[in-house]
């Protein structure tokens, strides 16, 4: 437990029990096929994959553990519907009467709507419970989904291992399937396997003993030729050596990988000991490691490791203070949770409630209507539309089972209540009976519902379900409060205004005008006609008293009481933190434009909920960042639509332990601070930042041969938001290892880093999303980083990764960089100031030096003539003002008359402080006139340099330099491609040489088997092949060294050319600067002449 009530959770991966690693016997059943087969179910020791194998089949089926969205056991697990399947399963169980306790259902899918289920039945109840607990501990853990690229490569290797055939060999076609789908890339896979001396034909299989993890990593590095890392490796010190020394590695870590803003005491610099620990961990060559050397392979592994992730694991853990009032948190919220598609014609689902809660959602919506069945059961649907309905009771049961699987923090049920009093009683009964102790049916003793009292904290409400519904208050008890609560329930739980309401009906009526012609029912009626009929029927069938709020349900409402919004001033005078309002996005946007500061202040005290406007009938989402900027807590989105707003929401709430609550910035919570979400200048107390992102390359982005590009956007305050501006070039026909390597994308000023996020997305050239990542700006680690990509549903993709270079810094306004450097390194700045001071002494008279360099005054004071010192002292004793003598001091070191031609004398006016005082300070008329004239001062050099003529010369030079750099980049690319081609050609030649040697050896072995010398010849042949491979490796290393020298020579040549061009540009700039200076001098001379004439 850290200070300030912050809970610092330690993230550790759960361990897989030995029983599960060795495997258990299960029955896997499927209703569609009608099969129930015995299988052995296992999880690998690292917890990467769940896999099972049937006795009759040679193939192994598997499922990536991080793709599992939910696991169910007992009464919540699925049961066979087919009686034959059920009877078959029961016949194999020792205790068939409690079948549900044996069942486990594993759910997975690409989004919240399309879910698939795998059903298993354990032979023993204890096994079922053990497996359920193990799978739940992994599938909802934040570490596996945010592991390093190196861990994901190990996972991919594990997938291959568990799918080995009965001969313990991995088919080559299985390796190829994951990496390539086109002919050229498949050939590349085969050639790479051949270069490693492994079987490489399509029908071949590689023995597990020959395909170790190190061999696999070497294979993957050759598939993606990492010339980008080779270039960095050379630039940071390797040059002609095949390794970095530990000193060079330490320098690299401190210069590039460490955030310069970190405190040196709390976050010390990297030292030799830490660098050696990395070398010992990631260097595959043990001889190098012993000497403190790091090869390019070890360097690559470090860059892809858990010690070099773009976000620290402590940000993924629960690390924020959870003891503040509810209003101080952003809360993961869903709108019309029951819908799986369109707002007017979509299907309703119980399952999506489970999926939303499992993803970390903490506020779900239930639109409650009277059921039409004979038993009068309340249902959930989008009223007055063609949407299907689901049972209210089924939804409550689903919420009870899934509410606290992912997070223990409170769940809010947002009721939009359209039910009659009778069915409201049933709703209350189900909530009480099904939720049990989880339901918060009365206030907590420590947090009474009183005016001026804050809301309870998420920690105080852990594992509690809170109902948000209309609160029925006695009118006589509080007329003012009662007035604010009035309004028929049928129009929503809060207000009847279409701009500020919790119900969507008014907005949907607007939308149906646009859709009435295009959307028709089966009978030919338009949707608008059906809506009108339903409204008329409702008015006839339901008397007024049946739509009033029922007391039993109202009694369950406590800390979240919806009210009609009047104004921010009115809410402030009431000071009731338990009152909240739902705003349609359009109404909230209007309020945000008109009263931004007041909106933020409102959200400091009480909750506000934002939901999409009714015209978003396709379930599109609005941008949630707009309302997060105002401190709105419940920004409700359509979870069934995975657009950019929803991706941002999933990415934001992935952090802080995926608990569904993110603490708002401090100044958005404190009443003594004011915040304007439209601020463009630095927020008081917050240091603005700057971020620079250079997209270098991608690896394994797609198994298809497609073009790809990368977009980098920032979302935050309006001043910080940058969208659709930064995009790399499209690299065509290369989904395996595209190289972008363009100029960095710069976000020069981020006003509020702790509210901003960076989104990096990779697309195919057609615009289809490959993967993306959302990163909090204040948590990004600078340096060379590999970024694991995620799907639109925020599921981690196994192989796709981006390699980037990130620079983070505090924002420094232009013109203050020297001052910032002085603050960063005051010792160096002070030493520079002293050197400049000593240099100036040689150009200044002694008295000027004494006035300009204060530290030298004590040394000059004793050498003044005694009469001057006495006169000065007498003058001060008489109460007069000390007047600085206007004189030049030549050499006063001997205490005598100075050698200057100008005499040193003080008149009586200087000494006598009482006589002629008016005359002494009286200014002449000419002096006054001179002061009234405009002052003519020398123009500073930096202003001359900013002159438009000088700027033109600079721009021309900059353009020429840019063209030269582009030319050099093309030269470098051509050389690298040439090198790669040469390496491939050499590898093929060497492979042919080995194949030829093997063929000769086969013939020799045939002859030797006849003469009985098979074993001797075989050993000699193996040694010959091994020696040949060693020789090939040396030849390849020599070639790489030669190529590295060529690259170095090219870079040196290019640098010389750039230096020469820069040198050539100095004289034209100097000449232009002289011209500008002469022009300025002429203008000032004219002005001076005019002054003298006057």
Automatic annotation (TrEMBL):
Coiled coil regions in record: 958-1007
EC number annotated for this UniProt entry: 3.1.4.11
Any one GO molecular function term: phosphatidylinositol-4,5-bisphosphate phospholipase C activity
Cofactor: how and how many bound: Binds 1 Ca(2+) ion per subunit.
GO cellular component: cytoplasm
Stretch list, region Disordered: 472-549, 908-936
Biased composition (Basic and acidic residues): 517-541
Protein name (database record): 1-phosphatidylinositol 4,5-bisphosphate phosphodiesterase
Species in which this protein is naturally found: Paramuricea clavata (Red gorgonian)
Native organism taxonomy: Eukaryota, Metazoa, Cnidaria, Anthozoa, Octocorallia
């Amino acid at each position: 437990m850290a200070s300030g009530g912050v809970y610092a959770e330690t993230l550790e991966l759960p361990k897989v029990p030995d029983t599960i690693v060795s495997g258990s016997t299960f029955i896997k059943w499927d209703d569609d096929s009608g099969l129930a087969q015995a299988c052995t179910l296992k999880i690998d020791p690292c917890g990467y994959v769940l896999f099972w194998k049937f006795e009759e089949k040679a193939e192994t089926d598997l499922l990536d553990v991080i793709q599992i969205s939910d696991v169910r056991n007992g009464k919540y697990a699925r049961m066979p519907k087919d009686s034959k399947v059920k009877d078959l399963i029961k016949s194999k169980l020792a205790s068939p009467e409690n079948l549900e306790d044996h069942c486990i259902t594993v759910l997975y899918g690409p989004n919240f709507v399309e879910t698939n289920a795998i059903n298993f039945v354990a032979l023993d109840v204890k096994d079922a419970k053990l497996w359920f607990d193990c799978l739940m501990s992994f599938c909802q853990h934040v570490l596996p989904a945010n592991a390093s690229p190196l861990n994901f490569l190990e996972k991919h290797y594990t997938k291959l291992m568990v799918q080995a055939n009965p001969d313990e060999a991995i088919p080559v076609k299985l390796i190829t399937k994951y990496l390539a789908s086109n002919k050229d890339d498949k050939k590349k896979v085969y050639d790479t396997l051949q270069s490693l001396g492994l079987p490489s034909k399509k029908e071949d299989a590689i023995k597990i003993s020959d395909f170790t993890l190190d061999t696999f990593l070497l294979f993957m590095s050759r598939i993606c030729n990492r010339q980008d890392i080779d270039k960095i490796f050379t630039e940071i010190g390797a040059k002609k050596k095949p390794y970095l020394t530990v000193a060079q590695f330490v320098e690299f870590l401190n210069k590039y990988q460490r955030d310069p803003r970190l405190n040196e005491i709390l976050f010390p610099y990297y030292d030799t000991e830490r660098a050696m620990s990395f070398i010992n961990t990631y260097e595959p060559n043990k001889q190098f490691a012993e000497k403190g050397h790091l090869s390019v392979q070890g360097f690559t592994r470090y860059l892809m490791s858990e010690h070099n992730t773009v976000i620290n694991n402590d940000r993924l853990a629960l690390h924020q203070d959870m003891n503040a009032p509810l209003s101080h948190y952003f809360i993961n919220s869903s709108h019309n949770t029951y819908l799986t598609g369109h707002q007017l014609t979509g299907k309703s689902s119980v399952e999506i409630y489970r999926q939303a809660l499992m993803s970390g959602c903490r506020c779900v919506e239930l639109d409650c209507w009277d059921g039409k069945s004979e038993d009068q059961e309340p249902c959930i649907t989008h009223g007055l539309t063609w949407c299907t309905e689901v049972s209210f009771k089924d939804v409550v049961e689903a919420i009870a089972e899934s509410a606290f699987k992912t997070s223990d923090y409170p769940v809010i049920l947002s009721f939009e209540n359209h039910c009659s009093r009778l069915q409201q009683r049933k709703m209350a009964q189900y909530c009480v009976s099904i939720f049990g102790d989880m339901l918060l049916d009365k206030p907590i003793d420590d947090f009474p519902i009183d005016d001026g009292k804050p809301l309870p904290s998420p920690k105080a409400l852990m594992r509690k379900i809170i109902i948000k519904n209309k609160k029925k208050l006695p009118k006589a008890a509080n007329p003012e409060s009662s007035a604010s609560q009035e309004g028929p329930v049928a129009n929503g739980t809060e207000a009847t205004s279409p701009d500020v309401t919790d119900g969507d009906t008014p907005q949907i009526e607007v939308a149906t005008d646009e859709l009435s012609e295009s959307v028709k029912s089966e009978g030919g009626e338009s949707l608008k006609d059906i809506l009108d009929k339903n409204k008329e029927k409702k008015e006839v069938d339901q008397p007024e008293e049946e739509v009033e709020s029922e007391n039993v349900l109202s009694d369950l409402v406590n800390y979240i009481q919806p009210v009609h919004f009047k104004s921010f001033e009115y809410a402030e005078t009431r000071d009731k933190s338990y009152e909240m309002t739902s705003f349609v996005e359009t109404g909230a946007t209007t309020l945000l434009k008109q009263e931004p500061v007041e909106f933020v202040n409102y959200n400091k005290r009480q909750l506000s909920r934002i939901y999409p406007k009714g015209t978003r009938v396709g379930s599109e989402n609005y941008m949630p960042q707009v309302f997060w900027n105002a401190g709105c807590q419940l920004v409700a989105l359509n979870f069934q639509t995975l657009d950019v707003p929803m991706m941002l929401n999933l990415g934001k709430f992935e952090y802080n332990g995926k608990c569904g609550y993110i603490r708002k910035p401090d100044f958005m919570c404190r009443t003594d601070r004011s915040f304007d979400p439209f601020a463009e200048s630095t927020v008081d107390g917050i240091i603005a930042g700057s971020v620079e992102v250079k997209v270098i390359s991608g690896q394994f982005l797609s198994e298809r041969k497609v073009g790809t590009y990368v977009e980098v956007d920032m979302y935050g305050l309006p001043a910080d938001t940058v969208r659709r501006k930064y995009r790399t070039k499209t690299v065509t026909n290369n989904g395996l290892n595209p190289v972008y390597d363009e100029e960095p994308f710069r976000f020069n000023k981020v006003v509020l880093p702790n509210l901003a996020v960076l989104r990096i997305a990779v697309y195919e050239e057609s615009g289809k999303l490959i993967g993306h990542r959302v990163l909090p700006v204040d948590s990004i680690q600078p340096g060379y980083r590999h970024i694991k990509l995620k799907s639109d549903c925020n599921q981690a993709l196994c192989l796709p990764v981006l390699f980037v270079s990130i620079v983070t810094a505090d924002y420094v306004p232009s013109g203050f960089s020297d001052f910032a450097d002085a603050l960063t390194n005051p010792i160096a700045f002070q030493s520079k100031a002293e050197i400049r001071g000593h240099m100036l002494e040689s150009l200044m008279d002694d008295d000027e030096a004494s006035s300009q360099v204060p530290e030298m005054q004590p040394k000059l004071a004793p050498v003044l003539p005694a009469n001057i010192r006495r006169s000065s002292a007498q003058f001060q004793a008489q109460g007069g003002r000390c007047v600085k003598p206007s004189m030049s001091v030549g050499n006063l070191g001997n205490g005598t008359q100075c050698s200057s031609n100008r005499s040193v004398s003080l008149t009586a006016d200087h000494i006598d402080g009482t006589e002629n005082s008016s005359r002494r300070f009286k200014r002449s008329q000419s002096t006054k006139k001179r002061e009234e004239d405009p002052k003519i001062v020398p123009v500073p050099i930096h202003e001359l340099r900013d002159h438009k003529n000088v700027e033109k010369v600079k721009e021309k030079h900059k353009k020429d330099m840019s063209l030269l750099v582009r030319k050099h980049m093309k030269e470098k690319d051509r050389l690298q491609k040439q090198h790669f081609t040469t390496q491939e050609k050499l590898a093929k030649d060497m492979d042919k040489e080995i194949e030829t040697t093997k063929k000769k050896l086969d013939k020799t072995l045939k002859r030797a088997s006849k003469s009985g010398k098979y074993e001797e010849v075989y050993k000699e042949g193996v040694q010959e092949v091994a020696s040949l491979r060693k020789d090939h490796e040396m030849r390849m290393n020599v070639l790489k060294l030669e190529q590295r020298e060529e690259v170095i020579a090219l870079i040196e040549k290019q640098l010389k050319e750039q230096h020469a061009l820069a040198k050539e540009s100095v004289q034209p700039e100097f000449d232009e600067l002289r011209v500008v200076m002469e022009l300025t001098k002429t203008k000032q001379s004219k002005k001076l002449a005019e002054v003298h004439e006057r």
